[in-house]
Hints:
Layout: E1 14-15, H1 20-29, E2 34-39, E3 42-48, H2 49-52, E4 73-74, H3 79-89, E5 93-97, E6 103-108, H4 109-117, H5 120-123, E7 127-134, H6 140-148, E8 154-163, E9 166-173, H7 178-187, E10 191-194, H8 200-216
Parallel strand pairs: 1-2, 4-5
Antiparallel strand pairs: 2-3, 5-6, 7-9, 7-10, 8-9
Helix pairs in contact: 3-4
Amino acid sequence: MIIHQYIINDVKPLEINSQMSKAQEIFSQLTYSHLPIVKEDTYLGCLSENDAHCFESIQTLEEVRYSFAVFHVKEDTHWLDVLEVFAQHQCNIMPVLDQKNQYLGYYELKDIMELFNDAPFMYESGAVVVVQKASTEYSFSEIAQIVESNDSKIYGCFVSAYKDHLSEITLKLSLQNLNGVLQTFRRYSYEIVSAAEEDSYLDTLKERADYLNKYLNM
Length: 218
């Protein structure tokens, strides 16, 4: 998925010799968390909105350069990695540099999130299944084999958590033979963390438990 077409320049970066009052004025008009700062076309870092309001309006950006947050992505950075950098720095604007580290423009978080929403993982009709197994005992090739051997398809798969040497894997699957997929995961010693409504294994256990309770109460 190519995303460099989403690079925008609606707000020009501030030059390092600009006064803080200019940054404060821009922040008062926009909802951006940061503003890129450059020296000519060379990217120096970002000034955060919170910091901008802590400084005197007559100060120059050069005087507060120590406060800049230095983060960016390259024009060929994969969109998932771009999302990761957004999350790491809790920002809604991401400077984009070329291979010579020259400033090209920026991404807005909402545009990248819309790309995520357009991925099959989000829009394909299917079931989200979360499984868990010891981190040293699972493999994605095994997971794919389990799913595909039951004539189902994987729309997305990623490690969503680590817990006490256990890996939690979230999958988006097609609905074909979902019960068979879940039961095969169990045979391969995967724990089903979240069970879909179609999971007849759990339904059967519940029916048997209900029957046993009725028998014991007779």
